[in-house]
Amino acid sequence: MAFPKTRMRRLRATAGLRGLVRETELSAGRFMLPLFVMDASSAGAEREPIAAMPGVERLSISAAVAEAGEAADLGVAAVLLFGVPAHKDEHGSGAWDDEGVVQMATRAIKQAHPDLLVVTDVCLCEYTTHGHCGVLRTDIDPPRVDNDATVELLARAAVSHARAGADIVAPSDMMDGRVGAIREELDGEGFSETPILAYSAKFASAFYGPFREAAGSTPTFGDRRGYQMDPANGREAVREALLDVQEGADMVMVKPALAYGDLISAVKRATQLPVAAYNVSGEYAMVKAAAAAGYLDERATVLEILTSLQRAGADTIITYHAKEAARWLAEES
Predict the structure, then answer these.
(1) Tally of domains within the chain
(2) Which domain holds residue 287?
(3) pLDDT band (50, 70, 90) for residue 138
(4) Which of 73, 118, 157, 197 has its CA 20 to 30 A from that of 16?
(5) Within a 10 A sphere around the Cβ of 147, how many other Cβ atoms?
(6) Burial class (CB in 10 A: 0-12, 13-18, 19+), 24
(7) Is the Cβ–Cβ distance between 13 and 21 less than 8 Å?
(8) 134 and 147 in contact (C-beta within 8 Å)?
(9) pLDDT given at position 43
(10) Has residue 97 been placed in a domain?
(11) Residue 13 falls inside a structural domain
């Protein structure tokens, strides 16, 4: 029998041929680096290592400026700021304090690196004594997050971040209606040009553990399954994203990323908006641990993961490996 005329291996024979027909090309300009910024009054040192995330640290504002500068020099497009405040209260008032840690860090980074995009996480969990993402209703047992009261405070926080110079605000709380409320408040305060990156499909995931250590945001009771999504639901993720689009989101996000490539693709097809994928702390920690044990080649594994996320439809990838990946890509070019 004659061999088929089509031989798929022809275009795989050399690096040059493979590069010529490669469908997905990673670039540092699509990466966003998360930074955990400490309040000046709580920062005993410039940098505090995070045990569960080797290579990632809580940073003073000056250290965050330096870290942002390194990222910018490597071609990373943006940093995503999370606050680690010195003081917390039941309502998370530090989230909308114009002299809060994220607001001060935003101003400092934009002054030092004006071309680097600063994206701010809009949530209350890092600022509340109870660790939940919103205001609690305490008249019921057990207490539950009050959606509508929380939305008002998130909108205040978003405006405070925009006033500090944030290029993009990113609500991560998963309250119903918060994108519309933030859009209305931003517009009303003169920030109609500030984009919203909505954490649209954020799942109640086991992959968030190291982040909660880093940000000090572990709930003191219960969990977040009452407002974050059930990992078993895919169609619901698309509905969430479409609702955020209707409310005025400029970009949408799927979080986590590694186990959710199907939903990155589905959300991209449904919304036709730029989609961000958050390669979260647990995904980072797994690769670091396996590489340290000699089970994986970290460089090859990370670049394969990031490529898969872009191939699935992610336009932007939020990753703790952003600086390392940028260096590796530069070495390959």
Answers:
(1) 1
(2) 27-332
(3) confident
(4) 73
(5) 18
(6) exposed
(7) no
(8) yes
(9) 55
(10) yes
(11) no
